[in-house]
């Protein structure tokens, strides 16, 4: 008789983006994960047997709770990019901050075990210069960076108040490699949190 494999159930947001797509490829290629994707757009481009793509209205608590139903780990990468954030700062905050808060609330309500949020190193400065750590003070006020920093602060608020002890948000550890070409290293770093 074969070995019983207990699969972790992941919810990945932002899988249409550059980083999210690579994280999806990393996890979808492994038999130990069942993956649900949520998107604001209807898309059939995700062709993996263990991936369930779903259109989701981010303003609907019901849609987000349905997306989080039965999920063990949320990996949240969805957000507005820097160019669009500069064009529409208010929408940048809606997407990058409020949608993060809505997804966190749904994950808490559905007892998701871990919530992993990917911010951006640009909260520290742009262009990135010098040595930076996650303790470096933030000083970038571009709408893209500022909205990601606000989302970090929102998550920190829930973590400190004890609303959710399962939040992880990383800027460097999962994102940056010395050459940013090593997707295996990226996958290995992210799996430390999964």
Give an overview in words:
Pfam families: Epimerase. It comes from Leptospira weilii str. Ecochallenge. The protein has about 190 residues and is α/β, with parallel strands linked by helices. The chain has a single domain, classed as Rossmann fold, CATH 3.40.50. Helices cover about 40% and strands about 15% of the residues. It contains 6 helices and 6 strands; from the N terminus they run βαββαβααβαβα. Helix 1 links the parallel strand 1 and strand 2. It is globular and about 50 Å long. The two termini are about 30 Å apart. Residues about 170-190 have low confidence and may be disordered.
Short descriptors:
194 residues; alpha/beta; Rossmann fold; six-stranded parallel sheet; 6 helices; globular; Epimerase_deHydtase; UDP-glucose 4-epimerase; NAD(P)-bd_dom_sf
CATH class: Alpha Beta
Q: Provide the residue-averaged pLDDT.
A: 79
- Give, in order, the helices and strands: EHEEHEHHEHEH
Largest sheet: 6 strands, parallel
Helix content: 25-40%
Shape: globular
Structural class label: alpha/beta
Number of domains: 1
Which parts are unreliable, with pLDDT below 50 for 5 consecutive residues or more?
A: 171-189
The overall strand count is 6
Tally of individual helices: 6
Pathway: Carbohydrate metabolism; galactose metabolism
Domain NAD-dependent epimerase/dehydratase: 11-156
Pfam families: Epimerase
InterPro entries: Epimerase_deHydtase, NAD(P)-bd_dom_sf
């Amino acid at each position: 008789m074969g070995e019983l494999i207990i699969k972790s159930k992941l919810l990945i947001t932002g899988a249409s983006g550059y980083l999210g797509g690579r994280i999806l490829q990393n996890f979808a290629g492994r038999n130990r994960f069942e993956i649900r994707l949520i998107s604001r757009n209807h898309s059939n481009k995700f062709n993996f047997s263990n991936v369930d793509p779903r259109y989701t209205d981010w303003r609907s608590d019901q849609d987000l709770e349905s997306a989080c139903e039965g999920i063990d780990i949320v990996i949240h990468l969805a957000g507005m990019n820097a160019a669009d954030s500069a064009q529409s700062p208010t929408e940048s905050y809606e997407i990058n901050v409020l949608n993060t808060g809505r997804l966190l609330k749904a994950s808490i309500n559905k007892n998701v075990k871990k919530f992993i949020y990917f911010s951006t190193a640009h909260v520290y400065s742009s262009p990135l210069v010098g040595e930076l750590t996650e303790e470096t003070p933030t000083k970038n006020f571009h709408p893209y960076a500022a909205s990601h920093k606000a989302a970090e602060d929102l998550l920190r608020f829930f973590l400190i108040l004890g609303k959710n002890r399962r939040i992880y948000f990383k800027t460097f550890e999962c994102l940056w490699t010395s050459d940013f070409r090593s997707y295996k290293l990226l996958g290995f770093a992210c799996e430390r949190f999964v």
